[in-house]
Amino acid sequence: MTRPEIVIGISYFWWMLRAIFILFISYLFFSSCERISSHTDSKLLFSEDTIYFDTVFSSIGSVTKELRIINPGKQDLTVDHIYLSGGNFSQFRLNIDGEPVYEKFNVRIESGDSIFIFVDVFVNPGNSNSPIEVDDSIIFSIGEKIQKVPLLAWGQDIHLIKSKTIKSETWQKGKPYVIYDKVLVDTLETLTIEEGARIFFHRNASLVIAGSIVVKGSVESPVLFAGDRLEKMFEDIPGQWKGILILNSAKANNVSHSIIRNAIYGIQLGEAVFSTEVPVLKLFSSEISHSTISGLSAINGNVEAANCIFMHCGNYCIYLEAGGEYNFTNCTLFNRWEYGLRLYPALLATEKPEKPEVRVSQLHVSFNNSVIYGDNQSELNIIPLNKIFTGNYYFDHCLLKYDTIGASFWDEDEFPGVLINKNPLFINPATWDLRPDTLSPLINHGSPEFSAMYPIDIRGVSRTLYGNPDIGAFERLPGEHKKVK
């Protein structure tokens, strides 16, 4: 081959290589342009069809919900416009892929990838006792194609009370009361709460009674004390607020037909200080449940309780310390704890104080026609101040989960008519339905002596219609069965 032919061949080779390179780069360029362009035939997928918020208190704001936006296609996608239908006037707020905005343009989602939008809602006060519907939509625009995800919340006006000392006043049904931090009922003052009232507590909030508290719930309209997380999943979660603390100075305290749940201490009566004053509590037809430490705790106090339920507590359903006078009739104590090991019985009554400065008196405690049961080997313990018990205890016609062999205080004379270690056969203890089932040993095993004192049960059912009264807070009605949800 001649030299000119070689030169021509090399030039042709480099020309072909250059053409191939240009074609390859052009392919990549146009292919890339095609992958990031908007496609009117593309469709987004969403992790939720609609975002729902449970009742949201006005002026406070909601929890944050999450929406995942997925590009299921084989090509990258640009969403031209994401925005709230209500725009700047919407009561909903967005955080789109990390930015707090009402709208965002040209949001790229790679093939098979996703982005997140976080949504909350801030409801403006409407001066209404009833919840109002608040709605909007998140709009996704790709070319001429529009997709949307509806947003729905219920807004509720409230009475908001923060870090306040109050005088005598009355709380009523209608707008709920939401408590932040500590609300103190002053000495010599009385807080009266009418039937149907709802009191919600923010995290670590408490109601402290230095004067008196009178709760006038009814069978049809009990008074509710609960945490302020209103989603259904939080209904049984303990430890959402501190609890109701009744100080030594509080005397005339009467709580009827109330539901107290989600606290650390449901009700704490008395203080761990030296005092000659004895706090007094009358508790009727009430339920204290889902407490991190105890349902009812009392330090050298005076308690009369009937037709009450104490359940689902991290330590004790009832804790009685440093003596005092306690009388419980037709009460149900039932405990199990799924959040860890529970080391204490459902009922612990001790003459010993936890702190040496606490004044100690004799312990007088009686349980009549009552259930004390749970998943521990023994759900009852009584501890004397020294070796000898100075007070007295009495369990009359009760059903007890109780280790009679290992207990030093077992005396048949102090436990007349009791049923030991028999399953109470509640209708559905898994869902905290503690009504007696058809074959329950609680039925007709109570003493008639106490039905004269408390002739109706926690829900207003007569205890004298079907023979002897039943043990526990509920009187069995023929034909009752599990609730269908």
Walk me through the structure.
The protein has 485 residues and is mainly β. It folds into two domains: 45-155, Immunoglobulins (Immunoglobulin-like, Sandwich), CATH 2.60.40.10; 159-451, Pectate Lyase C-like (3 Solenoid). The chain contains two helices and 37 strands. It has helices spanning 3-35, 448-451; strands spanning 45-46, 51-57, 65-70, 77-84, 92-96, 99-101, 103-109, 114-121, 132-142, 145-156, 159-166, 169-171, 177-185, 190-194, 198-201, 206-209, 212-216, 223-227, 241-246, 253-256, 258-261, 263-269, 280-284, 287-291, 294-306, 309-313, 316-329, 332-335, 347-350, 363-368, 371-374, 380-383, 392-396, 399-400, 419-420, 426-428, 433-436. It has a 25-stranded parallel beta sheet that branches. Strand 9 (132-142) and strand 10 (145-156) form a beta hairpin. The longest helix is centred in the N-terminal third of the chain and has 33 residues, at 3-35. The chain is elongated and about 85 Å long. It starts with a helix and ends in a 34-residue tail after the last helix. 39% of the residues are buried. Mean pLDDT is 89; it is low at 1-13 and 25-38.
